[in-house]
């Protein structure tokens, strides 16, 4: 399928079409299904084309241990001095909510899909007939997961944060060698929040040329300046974290 005619669900993705806008819920449901449903409804009202979830549990990502690499040391991080297991417990979306959330999105006319973090999550999302799978920046070197996702035959959206070009080339090769035909790479700066100066969105045309695929932006900056600029540089997909109100809090409500 050519770049100009790539599809995700019923949406055409390409420079001849309007940008495909993804509202990333992350953990901003604050462990309330009612709030999660409201986020989907409001995202649809705001014109988002898709709502994205994250499918994991604390135990599928890390172990319950404090200290060392299991704590976030970066003083500039939104989650500085947090323990990873406790953070993931707070942020995860309960798996038993997913079916209701997929149904709500369908009823509101938008796509619902997710980021799986292990094989069991991929199987679970396939059971919900997710139309596309997302690979997070920190999983784009998890080749068994990339193979599993590619073999579903669904389009793949992959973030590129924390990767150099050599790493990224290997990841793209793994996906394509295992059957991925429709791929979107998202330029991403893995700081939370990120600054416009560090977003380096001028690489978007370069990524498109190098990997012959659609390229978009996974944005962690505050405001909409960087996403708007990215679109002028050819970004055809924009993922932006989404909450109902910054004042009500959430694990990443600062950079929406």
* Uncertain parts: none
Q: Describe the strand arrangement of the main beta sheet, using strand numbers.
A: 5-4-3-10-9-8-7-6
Strand percentage: 15-25%
The name CATH uses for the topology of the largest domain is TIM Barrel
As for the number of domains, it is 2
Q: Tell me the helix content.
A: 25-40%
> Roughly how many Å apart are the termini?
33 Å
Which series of helices and strands comes N to C? EEEHEHHHEHEHEHEHEHE
Structural class: alpha/beta
Major sheet, described briefly? Answer: 8 strands, parallel
Task: Give the overall shape, derived from the CA principal axes.
Answer: globular
* CATH level-4 homologous superfamily of the largest domain: Aldolase class I
Q: Please report the total strand number as a whole number.
A: 10
CATH top level label of the largest domain:
Alpha Beta
Radius of gyration: 17 Å
From the coordinates shown, what is the CATH architecture of the largest domain? Alpha-Beta Barrel
Mean pLDDT: 90
């Amino acid at each position: 399928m050519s770049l100009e005619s790539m599809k995700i669900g019923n949406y055409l993705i390409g420079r001849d079409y309007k940008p495909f806008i993804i509202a990333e819920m992350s953990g901003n449901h604050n462990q309330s299904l009612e709030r999660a449903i409201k986020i989907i409804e409001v995202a649809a009202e705001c014109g988002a084309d898709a709502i994205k979830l994250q499918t994991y549990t604390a135990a599928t990502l890390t172990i319950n241990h404090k200290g060392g690499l299991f704590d976030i040391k970066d003083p500039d991080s939104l989650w500085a001095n947090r323990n990873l297991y406790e953070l993931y417990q707070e942020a995860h979306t309960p798996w038993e909510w997913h079916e209701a959330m997929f149904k709500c999105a369908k009823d509101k006319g938008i796509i619902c899909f997710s980021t799986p973090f292990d094989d069991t999550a991929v199987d679970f999302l396939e059971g919900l007939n997710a139309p596309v799978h997302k690979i997070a920046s920190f999983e784009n070197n998890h080749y068994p997961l990339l193979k599993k996702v590619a073999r579903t035959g669904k389009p793949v959206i992959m973030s590129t944060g924390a990767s150099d070009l050599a790493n990224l080339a290997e990841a793209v090769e793994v996906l394509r060698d295992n059957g991925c035909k429709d791929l979107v790479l998202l330029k991403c700066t893995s700081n939370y929040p990120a600054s416009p100066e560090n977003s380096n969105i001028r690489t978007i045309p370069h990524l498109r040329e190098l990997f012959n695929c659609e390229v978009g932006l996974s944005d962690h900056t505050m405001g909409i300046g960087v996403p708007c600029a990215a679109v002028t540089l050819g970004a055809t997909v924009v993922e932006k974290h989404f909450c109902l109100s910054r004042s009500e809090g959430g694990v990443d409500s600062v950079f929406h």
